[in-house]
Design goal:
The chain is mostly helical. The chain is built from 13 helices and no strands. The chain has helices spanning about 1-35, 45-50, 60-95, 105-120, 125-155, 165-190, 190-200, 210-230, 230-240, 240-245, 250-275, 280-290, 295-314. The protein is flat.
């Protein structure tokens, strides 16, 4: 009996690592293809030369590969990974398969916060300060509104008699409220700011540049690393609060910090990409079909899937 269990465990272990390796190879292949594809097609050797010895190429080719396509690819990877990981963790924390950064209203709230930052940058007293620190302020504003909406949802979940359906409905209502706020900002702002807000609502990698990548990268890495370290606690929460508490999990602390890091990673990316709702919901579910419920493997699997889906979509 013990030998059968050990054989089954080893088989599952090898299967999971095989899936993770295959997804990583697919992501690298998609990224390399994205460096070639575009309005100006580049050969494989030109892309390799641009990555290995960029000084040997002409200015136009070097600019296309390193300044235009590479930041776009990296931002797609960071955004897809952060949204998928946030969706995975939120579903575990709330024990609801329908939860994602979008369904809980966090995406709309973060986008509203970033839109507020864009509109405020045109105010006379703040324009000089915003010119130098606009990207950082956009991320801070998006995070503030995003974390506020998630904590409000969490406060509702603590009320006696609340159910998963209550949380989903509360998230939908909050999403509509922040969408209404976005419409007000669109109506009252000038044409330049209106264009930026409209691009946001569409969602996309239009905000990709090296400044965005440099700002977002450490945030996403730190948040995802923390959430991965809490995989055992998330596995315990899937069995119920009583089981997790008996196993020594500090439930309130894990939920609050988990929501905090999910929101920080997602908001930082959404500040530059706009509303992208499907990654945080579909990525975790595809990951469960491929690799199972264990968050030790599901979190990196969802990250790779989210990055791959968003890059291919872009």
């Amino acid at each position: 009996m013990d030998e059968d269990i050990e054989i089954l465990y080893n088989r599952e272990w090898h299967h999971r690592w095989l899936v993770l390796g295959a997804l990583l190879l697919a992501l690298l292949a998609a990224g390399f293809y994205a460096l070639n594809a575009g309005s100006i097609h580049l050969s494989v050797m030109e892309v390799i030369d641009a990555l290995i010895k960029p000084d040997a190429l002409d200015t136009q080719t070097r600019m296309i590969v390193l300044d235009l396509r590479m930041p776009r690819i990296l931002l797609a990877v960071l955004t897809g990974a952060s949204l998928a990981v946030a969706g995975t963790v939120m579903q575990a924390l709330m024990r609801n398969p329908l939860v994602s950064p979008f369904t809980l209203g966090m995406s709309s709230a973060a986008s509203f916060g970033a839109a507020c930052a864009i509109v405020m940058s045109s105010l006379p007293l703040l324009s000089l300060a915003f010119m130098e620190y606009q990207d950082a302020f956009i991320v801070l504003s998006a995070f503030t509104f995003g974390i506020g909406s998630v904590f409000l949802i969490y406060a509702i979940s603590l009320r006696r008699g609340s159910t998963s359906a209550t949380l989903i409905l509360a998230g939908v209502v909050l999403g509509y409220i922040f969408q209404a706020g976005l419409m007000v900002l669109q109506y009252t702002t000038d044409n330049e700011k209106l264009r930026q807000i409209t691009l946001w609502l569409m969602g996309g990698m239009w905000g990709a540049n090296w400044s965005a990548v440099i700002l977002v990268t450490p945030i996403v890495i730190i948040c995802c690393a923390y959430l991965l370290c809490k995989a055992w606690d998330l596995n315990a929460l899937l069995a119920g609060d009583e089981v997790a508490q008996n196993a020594g999990v500090e439930i309130k602390k894990v939920r609050l910090l988990g929501l905090f890091f999910c929101t920080l990673a997602s908001s930082a990316c959404l500040a530059f990409t706009g509303i992208i709702g499907f990654i945080g919901l579909i990525g975790p579910h595809i990951g469960r079909l491929l690799i199972g419920q264990d968050n030790r493997y599901l979190i990196p699997c969802s990250a790779l899937l989210g990055a791959l889906i968003l890059m291919v979509s872009d």
